[in-house]
Structures are given as C-alpha cells and as structure tokens.
Amino acid sequence: MPRNVKNKEKVQPIEAVKGVLRRTLLYNDSLMLCHFTLEENAEIPIHSHKEHQIGYVIKGKIKFLTENAEFIARTGDSYIFDSEEKHGAIILENTEVIDIFNPSREEYK
Hints:
Order of helices and strands: EEEEEEEE
Strand content: over 45%
Helix content: under 10%
Largest sheet: 8 strands, antiparallel
CATH class: Mainly Beta
Number of strands: 8
Shape: globular
Radius of gyration: 13 Å
Distance between the termini: 18 Å
Mean pLDDT: 96
CATH topology: Jelly Rolls
CATH architecture: Sandwich
CATH superfamily: Jelly Rolls
Number of domains: 1
C-alpha cells in the first residue's frame, strides 16, 4: 500500500490511558491524523501539548474539560484546542473520534 494511504484496521491500537485506544494513521512534519476508540467512563487527565488539536466525533458522547469551561461533544460535533490549552475529558458513552494535530506529535509516531 502506498505511504499516502492507510486503513485504520491495519494499524495496531495503543492504549494511551485505560479505556482509550489510539491508532496513529497518517502524518508528515506538519499534520497528524489519529483515530481514537474511547470506552464509556474512561477519563483523559487534564493535559496540554504544543500541538494544535482539532477533532470530530464519529459516534458517541464525550465531556471535555478546560481551565475555563466544560462542554459536551456528541456524534457529528467537532472541537478544537489551541497550542498549550489545558484540556481533558470524561467519556460519557462508547465513543469514536478523529483528531488532527499540527504539527505532528512526536510521541504518537
């Protein structure tokens, strides 16, 4: 398969935190595409990173927490976090999301 095409089913998932599986799909120096499968009641601790993050909820429901607010993203919703913006999440039901990072996250390669 060419380097510019990757099927998520052929990527071994990595458990980032309990109940959070990440598949790093395609990336270059500027962009990275990841698929996450999130189990109901899993929690992503508050964290930040230099990369900008934009995502889309394929299915499910997730509560995001930031320093200043919290919001719920559902199937069909998108979200964004700026560089160094603190954020975390509580998974309200089994959820799938796509996240894009700019630039690519070295630790996810």
